[in-house]
Amino acid sequence: MRRNYHIGRWIVCIFICIWSLFPIYWALNTSLTTPVASQSAPAHFVPSPLVFDNYRRIFGLGNAYQGSQSLWTGFRASITNSFVEGIATTVLTVAIAALGAYAFARMRFFGRRLFFYTVLTTLALPAYATLIPLYRIMSDWGLVNTYTGVVLVYVSGYLPLAMWILYNYFLSIPISLEEAALVDGASEVRTLVSIVAPLAVPALAAVAIITFLTAWAEFLFPLVMTSDLSTEPLTVFITSIRLSHIVPYTLLNAVGVMGIVVPAIIVMFLNRYIVTGILAGSGK
Amino acid sequence: MREQTSGPPPDDPLQAAASAGVRTWRRPLALPRMRALPYLLVLPLMAVIAVLAVYPTALTFIDSLYHIDLLSPPQTFVGLQNYTDLFSDPDVATSWENTGLYVLFGVVLSTVLALIMALGLRDRFRGRAIMLAILILPWALPAVVEGVTWAWIYDPSFGVLNSLLHSLHVIQSYQLWISGNQVSSIFFIELVQVWQITPLSAVLILASLQTIPPELYEAARVDGATERFTLRSITLPLIRPGLSIAIVQAIVQSMNIFDQVYVLNGNALTGRSILMQTYLTAFANLNFGQGYALSFLVTIATVIVSVGILSFVYRTVEF
Description:
The complex is a heterodimer of chains A (284) and B (319). Chain A is mainly α. Chain A has helices at residues 2-31, 35-38, 53-58, 68-106, 112-124, 131-140, 147-172, 176-183, 188-199, 201-217, 220-225, 234-244, 249-281. The mean pLDDT of chain A is 88. Chain B has 319 residues and is mainly α. At the A-B interface, helix 1, helix 4, helix 5, helix 6 and helix 7 of A face helix 2, helix 4, helix 5, helix 6 and helix 7 of B.
């Protein structure tokens, strides 16, 4: 019976590897070959011939194809936008959520329940429900197609989950350390900064990683909120080159691989925090 | 989270402490009276939530009662007209029907796959950490990029899916997987989303599995229970909380599918989801009033389904 279970486990593991990795491998495989070779039947499972033209083209090197320069300009601008928007969103979300979550977890004040449940209720709303009104608010404020507008929209969407994860985490930290600090005469702000913040690093990291990955993957909001390469992230750029030019799938997959690299690296090295964060967020 | 009506489970220290009258975290901190600090701490949070989440949601409902069409001003109050228009629009009806199919395929496929994956990774073994990283990878990738990648896999002339199935003699000729007919389009678009959302379900189920005491399995083995019996009578009932949250997230995700549809099928009616319909109504036809009405209906539907399932699982709310 144990033996059966071991065999079963290996079958599942092999299945997970193929299921998770094959589509990514296929994008990589396609991106490393020529358009003609990518259309061979039956398909080649290793790139033959192996060429780096698609990546050279994305990075504007040489003139493997025409129009390399404009592609590089667009790619550089959009991946920069993805980083700027992702990082700004992460910093703001973590900071705002941590302060609020700490107050909810440790302090008694008038209106606490009302505030807390208001935030939790917005957690239940589907993200896209506020797409149209947010667009109109941002357009009234003149913030469409600006970093500020995009980041504000993201932050408003991610705060409830971030607050909930951190709230649960603060509850799980023993209160005695904070009490000891207070008894010793430290101010509450001092206690928060030098006692609580270091203890909360794993949860803060989890929230930061999940927030960044979500911002990096965002599509419909920036599709509506951005209108040119000054703010357009990589996700919108990929679909726009797919629609506006006749691009071979080899090149499209190369751009796709570039969009996958950053989150893949994060998962490879920081997956432990992600799992912790997901579980804290599910309110187990 | 287990269903126990009388008394807290003895193995839960928090609950045990609470029932014994011991206050855990609620003990007031040193400083009493009305203070500014808590308000300063929650102010940024509440400001953003109020202006950019609560207000827009309220606006969605209020403006859904107005005729707001950028192509035919002025803005006028029309009551429920936007809603009645929606109910008589055949495209909207098709979109709801499509969304129902997305949810059906999404929930069934992702839950079954996640359950199998979680059961395989239940026990500790060498390489389990790496398997977990591989497992969650698809969850972390942008849906749009996944859509572009899968569009190539599904390609009717050169896609690897056709090539592979043809080599294995499963199909006689290359197939048009998407945009041919409704059911197959939706199935293959949803499969891309399932690829993305299954990891989350698997992690949630896995966490539930690990709360089951190993003694239960020992006892079952001693009593000579079959593996199927063990799965049905011990594992499945005890992972109900994790399973339900996994199902809820699958419902919410698949009900709100957009990115994959946009990339793989554009706005074609064969696979148009309700969110795609909302996007088209508001941002292509510029009929914001009707867009609001549709957004509001999607919100209500999502909240009812998720709250319904969750409240079925959690009889009590802790705060």
